[in-house]
Amino acid sequence: MKEGFIETKNGKVWYCSFSSAKQTVPILVVHGGPGFVSMPQVIEEFSDDHDVYFYDQIGSGKSDRASCNDFYSVENFVDELEEVIKALKFEQVILMGFSWGCALICKYMLCKKPENVKGIILSAPYLSSPRWYADQRENIMNMPEDTRKAILLGEETQNYGDNYQKAMMEYYKKHVCCLNPWPDSIQQAFGKLNMDVYLTMWGPSEFTITGKLKDFDLLPELERIDVPVLLTCGDYDEAEIKTVRDYQRAFKNASMAVIPMASHLHQIEQPEIYKTVVRAFLKKICDPAALKT
Fold first, then answer.
1. Cβ-Cβ contacts under 8 Å for 262 (sequence gap 6 or more)
2. Position 239 confidence tier, pLDDT thresholds 50, 70, 90
3. Which pLDDT score is estimated for 23?
4. Closest Cα partner for 155 from 265, 163, 13?
5. Residue of 59, 51, 38, 60 whose CA lies nearest to 89
6. Which CATH number goes with the domain that contains 88?
7. How many CB atoms lie within 10 A of CB 22?
8. How far apart, in whole angstroms, are the C-alpha atoms of residue 293 and residue 289?
9. What pTM was computed for the model?
10. 166 φ/ψ angles, rounded to the nearest 5 degrees
11. Which residues are catalytic?
12. Which of 27, 103, 118, 155 has the fewest CB atoms in 10 Å of its CB?
């Protein structure tokens, strides 16, 4: 692994890369959150065929923090993604997003209209707050009664204390990561979540949206993205199958795979299945004969 920092107009952005001996299109990974960190686990293995790059968004991981929480916005994260891509000097690139990272990639495609993006991989995609909220309501109603009541009471009173937190973790064990126990890598990543970013952009939990993204919705605009797209989700994912199917239909050129016995972090729960699905997509869009030498 190689790592370094990119100087952007808003601070230093940390990045790392895993190099491949093959001359093919690199992959840039955009992490979830907002406020989460890059997770190279599993994804770094695509470096057998592609250079794989990760970066921590401003406010996350090893990158600089903003001087004011008001800085954290969709627009600034889109500008940052553009700066990262330009700094890394990609002639062509495949963008791979996870959760919030999927929304960031799609907003970047819509706003900046880049010509060097070869394809997009959207895993556990968040692309619409109204759809996300509706899906999480349905999931909550299917949780045990005590868990359901603790969540709803916390939201009603805006008291996100111990009872809400315990109920939240029960929800996460089913819909965020269903491995038991959680691997150390996941626990460590959640321990690094920057709540300043998360609360500003999102809210107190995955299913309670109170931040700037509350009304965010890209679904009506997805038809304007015409590069090949792969969407993946777990069958217990927060990104519900029916909603991801609607996303697939909205894109001009998209395929979809549901990873069995998995949830939001399905790339870690079912790594071999996930890698097989993604590699098939990469092979399809990266015909070596079509690439520049």
1. 178, 234, 235, 236, 237, 269, 270, 273
2. very high
3. 85
4. 163
5. 51
6. 3.40.50.1820
7. 12
8. 9
9. 0.96
10. -65, -45
11. 99, 237, 264
12. 155
